[in-house]
Amino acid sequence: MRFLSSRRRHPAAKALLLVLGLFVMGAFYTVLAPAGQSSADTGTSQQVEEGRALFAVGCSSCHGLNGEGQASGEIQGPPLAGVGAAAVEFQVGTGRMPMARPEAQAPVKPNRYTPEEVAALAAFVATMGPGPEIPDPSQYDPAGLSEEEIARGGELFRTNCSACHNFEGAGGALPGGKYAPSLYGVSNQHIYEALITGPQQMPVFSDGVLKPEDKREIIAYLNTLHEEPSQGGLELGGLGPVSEGLWGWIIGIGGLSAIAVWIAAKGAKAK
Hints:
transport, Cytochrome bc1 complex cytochrome c subunit
């Protein structure tokens, strides 16, 4: 009996039991783990590798092979760690990237990548560091919003966006050769991605600044505004009273001045 009790109190017994328990738990996990997990990981890894190959050909000359960026030389590109998949989808999906040549701002141009290639590039860049993910359609689909919510979206847009994009999203000039692009024809997804990533000189409107429902209401307001038919007359680019007053001054006052000069000239000849 003394021999058995001493065996039970052996100092290695607890350690051996712990190792045995871990082994049993590992065996159970291997048997019971869902089979789809490994296939999903394989698919993601394949997508990342496809994105890596595309990145090496189309992006690495500016951003470096590993997205570390280049801060010297004629061609410069910022580091991409932490920009997130949403920034890649926006920049590449709108054709802004890759840039044809260094400019003050990347212009919109036809996209040279397929949706699958854009997704692969986004997946690869997302591995460089955590950042905004590509939004789900439910986040930017304005369907079902009430008139009051759309009107609130207009207030949010005029407060946060109209200083650069104009009160109806027609765009506008900024210092240093830059500009706020027109929002006409921009997809709901790209508007949402621009809000959460802050492309170029645009600030980032995080969920702490504009809640997801706020962003959705802004998108609903822009859709409603841009779907309204023209009520006649010259729209003048939707630039509002400044442009209207300018043309009123040039044509109106200029025309009256020309008439006054003509009358004075005719009167002088009559004498």
